């Protein structure tokens, strides 16, 4: 009799614990309710060696299984492009990440990769690098998702559906829109970076009225992105770089 009661009590306890782990949440991306024990890690967890970073190093936001699955292809391209951008000596130390990236490179992408040596007038090799065409579509999709996740992490509410969210690689912004780049540069220079994952990822943020500004930086690749969340504008983000990004000011 006592044993039956203990078994019943244990079952009840386990059921309650499972209930806590599988509590219903709302996905911050599709904003549908779901039951899950995991969320979306920001930045994508695959960018970091597993033996150096555990789950506590990542910002985790509520995300349903369907959205998580749909991110996989863009995440792989994002990780590939940033990893190949890293300086050679550092990249070679990341055997685990390099191995994953190498296995994920398809033939079409591999054919476009070139190895270049930069030499001095005296024919001394200054440095070597790989050149390749990054997948801007994937870079923008992933960084827009990171911006949405950081917004949730900061304000504890998801970005409303169909709100205009846009990101742009700093390299493209600097080359194509130098005046806009300069305004962003001045705006973010006065803001303190928030560091994550031992400095491999850091971000800055600011707000002017209904527009939230973000600066994301990934190391050791040294790649930066500028992003905005415009709560007063209702349209989905696009992978085309938008020359009408709101002008920053120090107001």
From TrEMBL:
Gene3D superfamilies in the cross-refs:
1.10.30.50
Protein's recorded name: HNH endonuclease 5 domain-containing protein
Taxonomic source organism = Telmatocola sphagniphila
